[in-house]
SDR family oxidoreductase (Streptomyces yangpuensis), 245 residues
Amino acid sequence: MSETTTALVTGANKGIGYEIAAGLGSLGYRVGVGARDATRRETAVGKLRAAGVDAFGVPLDVTDGQSVTDAAELVERLAGRLDALVNNAGISGEMAPGWVQDPTVLDLEVLRTVVDTNVMGVVRVTNAMLPLLRRSASPRIVNVSSSVGSLARQADPDIEIGPVMAAYAPSKSFLNALTVQYARQFAGTNILINAACPGLVATDFTGFQGPRTPEQGATTAIRLATLPDGGPTGSFFEDDGVVPW
């Protein structure tokens, strides 16, 4: 089996996901660029390769079980194992002006769609990739979350946490809780799993509103994907440290 370390980043064709892939690539990882759109995926792969990254495309729709299975088979054929999985793919769901999702008029289909991508998608991909991760000496899983999923911050009237987002924010709370359950299940193994908040990053996801660049938003996820053995697990981090649940 190759000694090259391999990472898979979902939603890696643009924004924070792309910069996570680029950052891991700069550290010597071979990087699978997971993305649904073939043109954007191959454009990202070409850009990464031009920058010296050993990158390969992985057709991947996290909401489609067959797509996820096929992606795992592709990674196995190309790499034989997986050393880091970064579950970055996510959506906000339809919002009213001002990024508002009013719970009193929330369309349940919007909620289902957001949870299917942001939570169930993570379960699909993680479980499909687990056999490959278990072949690694130091497997790492990072779930890209958001501080808006922090119940402590959401419930504190003295903290400015942004608008009411009744689909997106709870999906990240759900993802955080799921991260803890995986960590409990992985107790006693060499698999470390954590959640990462990138902060408010200027990408198309936010309408290019935010004080942070995609490169800055990628830093915590990259750090968690490359933790040394004995590092933290089942925790939630941002650049400044631990985020309260």
